[in-house]
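User: I'm writing a tutorial on reading structure tokens. Could you give me a worked example: one chain, its sequence, then its tokens, then a sentence or two explaining what the tokens reveal?
Assistant: Sure. Here is the example chain.
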Amino acid sequence: MSKTLLILLLALFPLGSASAHEFWIEHGEGGFLLQRGHADGQRLPLDKKKVVAIHCRDPKGKTVDLLPVARFEGTRATAPGACVVISAFADGGYYSLTPDGEKNLPKDQVPDAVRSWRSKQFAKWVDPRSPNHRQALGDELEVVPVTDLSTVKAGDKATFRILLRGRPIAGAILSIAHKGIGESDDEGQVRVRVREGRLMTVAASLRRPIKSAHADTEVFEASLTFAVPK
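And here are its predicted structure tokens:
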């Protein structure tokens, strides 16, 4: 592979397209909807084998496992439950970028790999009316509201904290509609303006180098969806 082609690949695929699509949860008819793709556009197939956890916190604070009752249908999964907070984890596995595109394989199985990464995606939905909506669930990467979301309206600002394995993490990028809004500070916090619309999804991404025969980095993504009060 030429040096020019290598530079071009790294410029075009900084994280890889496998990490360029959001994974999010909405509250809909029949329960909660898990979807992947673009919230305002194309939906992508949701692989049942890669969604390895769906956890619900009910109004009494009890955590319920919804994965066994989730129904997967093409581009979405439906999980019934009385939840004030619900989260899901999709383990994308290992990806390698090659001159011929991406392969869902670790780099030690791809001789011509240019770059490789481990992909983990987390999604969370919260009910702002619940007094528990600002509590962390314990996902590996998690977006947690600092501001009481029940009090904000479109145009107000709200603060979110990014946690990695339960601790505030600096340098995570917070995005809205795939556009970077800000970077978390030393306390893991980012302050953003709440937008118009029935729902709002904020998404955090974090990339960290790892020492592994399987990948160069691990890429974490986490979304938080909530209804904007009228």
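What the tokens reveal: The chain has a mean pLDDT of 88. The chain has one domain: 3-227.
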